[in-house]
Amino acid sequence: MNDLLDKGAVLQRDKETYAIAPHIPAGLISSDQLRKLADVADRYKVSAIKITAAQRIALVGLKEEDIDSAWDDLGMSPGAAIGLCVRSIKTCPGTTFCKRGFRDSVSLGLKLDDRYHGMNLPNKLKIGVSGCANSCSDNHTRDIGLMGMPKGWAVFVGGKGGTKPRLGDRLVINIPDDKVLDLVDDIVKLYASNADGKERLGSYIDRIGFEEFKSMIDLDKYTK
Predict the structure, then answer these.
(1) Which among 86, 73, 169 is positioned nearest to 123, based on CA atoms?
(2) Do 180 and 145 meet the contact criterion of CB atoms below 8 Å apart?
(3) Which of 138, 143, 141 is nearest to 86 (CA)?
(4) Which has fewest Cβ within 10 Å: 27, 55, 145, 218?
(5) 3-state secondary structure of 22
């Protein structure tokens, strides 16, 4: 089973077939990659092609014996859809495409993806990057949420869904583009070093208190 998880294969409800979802940084995919996905879906007669909430495209209904050859045919790497690690970096169109965007969420999302995707942590960690307050990347319910504003980035921490959903706490606002990556680094390192086993970031914040968490990050170097 661990071998299948390493291959990004997720057992489906029928307990017989699997889904795979290639990594698609920032949700941007080429026409050639789309053709490959369609060709592989036809070749292995998948039961569904599903666009996921994490901006991936899943091929659902693969037989176990077809998983390796399907990945070979795709020529793409698996997305980190399972396990205790950094999952997808959900990214909106931002100023690259959207008329409402204040900040370049696509560029920042790609940098975050390159730095963190798949990184092992105490529990899963999801990041949302929205170019404006419309929050199309659900930044308020991500473990780390970045929201573009006219003067910089607002940073939220501790959001999540689940049976006990939690809105992220607003850590700081107006962080410049050239400092936001370093701030995310500090948050990830703090969480990785101090959270208990399998404790989500929001649970860690609730355990120690938000003000204590906030005091453990030198915010002055990002705001002055």
Answers:
(1) 86
(2) no
(3) 143
(4) 218
(5) strand
